[in-house]
Automatic annotation (TrEMBL):
It comes from the Bacteria. The keyword Nuclease does not apply. The chain crosses the membrane at residues 54-71. It comes from Sphingomonas pseudosanguinis. Residues 94-146 form the NfeD-like C-terminal domain. This is NfeD-like C-terminal domain-containing protein. Keywords: Membrane, Transmembrane, Transmembrane helix. GO terms for cellular component: plasma membrane.
Length: 149
């Protein structure tokens, strides 16, 4: 018995099942879409048993693209509630942090210490040693404002 003797629909179904199980071990929300495409291809091959292998592969490719596009759209619009919505965006977490000016802000530009690093800053003129608050980050430059009491 060779692989050519097996039912093509069963092979596609087994492939889809294997992809679905692989998604459990390598979560990335991608293999599941290929598993769905393999399942749809299995249904088509079951309904049309004489479908040539080339057309089966084309159908699988088309359904894979369709599933990934729909899936990406769904996940992009899927709201995520979190205690730390910017956890994986470290630059956005800098907002609200207090910095100490190390190089005076003159003409709106200077440098300030934040943690163990020094950053370029933009804001109102300030002397070295002044403590300011990060209002926003723009392309690696901290936009600072006076501390509010």
């Amino acid at each position: 018995m060779t692989i050519g003797d097996l039912d093509p629909a069963a092979l596609w179904l087994a492939g889809g099942l294997a992809l679905g199980i692989a998604e459990l071990f390598v979560p990335g929300v991608f293999l599941i879409f290929l598993a769905v495409a393999a399942g749809v291809t299995a249904l088509t091959v079951w309904a049309i048993p004489d479908l040539p292998p080339v057309l089966q592969l084309v159908e699988f490719a088309v359904w894979s693209i369709v599933c990934v596009v729909i899936g990406r759209r769904w996940y992009r619009d899927f709201p995520v509630d979190s205690d730390a919505p910017v956890l994986n965006e470290p630059v956005r977490r800098l907002g609200g942090q207090v910095v100490t000016v190390t190089m005076p802000i003159v003409g709106g530009e200077g440098r300030a210490r934040l943690g163990d690093g020094e950053w370029p800053v933009r804001g109102a003129d300030a002397e070295a040693g002044t403590r300011l608050r990060v209002a926003h980050v723009d392309n690696g430059v901290l936009l600072v404002e006076p501390l509010s009491d």
